[in-house]
Design goal:
Blueprint: H1 4-35, H2 40-43, E1 52-62, E2 68-71, E3 81-86, E4 90-100, E5 104-115, E6 118-130, E7 133-140, E8 144-145, E9 154-163, E10 169-180
Parallel strand pairs: 3-10
Antiparallel strand pairs: 1-2, 1-4, 4-7, 4-8, 5-6, 5-9, 9-10
Length: about 180
């Protein structure tokens, strides 16, 4: 004789098992769509479960002057300015990076700027989810304007980070720059 409770439990476990297999299939299909036609043997996907993200450079792009390409890691002396900007100049920032070994989910950029120990700007930008490939990715920010005026001039400290959804940090770097009148 079978109890009704045991049938419900058995059915519940069957349904849960089906949903788990279904979810795994959906995740596998999603990863295959992201990977596309990537040569998995060339990228060594599967050797490590964690994605490897390498930030190659940061480029400041201006309307009125040539681009300023800063290789990462930054090569400036401690507390010396890496570059100088003119007050009120318009610019865009472009990051170049590579992804290898696995998919990186929810890659985001955070940046904070301080002047004389006071935080004057902070930003967070979601870059997206990226699959491994040999060619580098680029991400370009919206146009921004440096502050202008007498009070805006001086030395600024910047700290940037690249993190994924799991909180893994791929880059934590800092540098100084200066804003001048001309």
């Amino acid at each position: 004789m079978s109890l009704p409770h045991s049938n419900v439990t058995k059915n519940w476990f069957l349904a849960l098992s089906f949903l788990s297999r279904s979810s795994l299939r959906r995740i596998k299909k999603w990863k295959q769509q992201l990977l596309g036609r990537v040569d998995l043997s060339a990228l060594a996907v599967g050797e490590s479960k964690e994605a490897e993200v390498r930030i190659l450079s940061m480029t400041l792009m201006f309307q009125e002057r040539p681009e300023l390409v800063l290789p990462i890691p930054f090569t400036n002396k401690p507390k010396s300015s890496l570059f100088t900007l003119k007050g009120g100049s318009k610019f865009r920032t472009k990051f170049t990076f590579t992804v290898s070994k696995n998919i990186v989910s929810g890659l985001k950029f955070t940046g904070s700027i301080w002047k004389t120990g006071v935080k004057v700007h902070s930003s967070k930008r979601m870059l997206g989810t990226f699959s491994p490939r040999p060619d580098p990715y680029t991400y370009e920010t919206e146009e921004d304007t440096t502050p202008s005026g007498m009070l805006a001039r001086g030395k600024y400290f910047v700290r940037i980070k690249f993190l994924d959804d799991d909180g893994k940090c791929y880059l934590d770097a800092s540098y100084y720059f200066e804003i001048q009148k001309n």
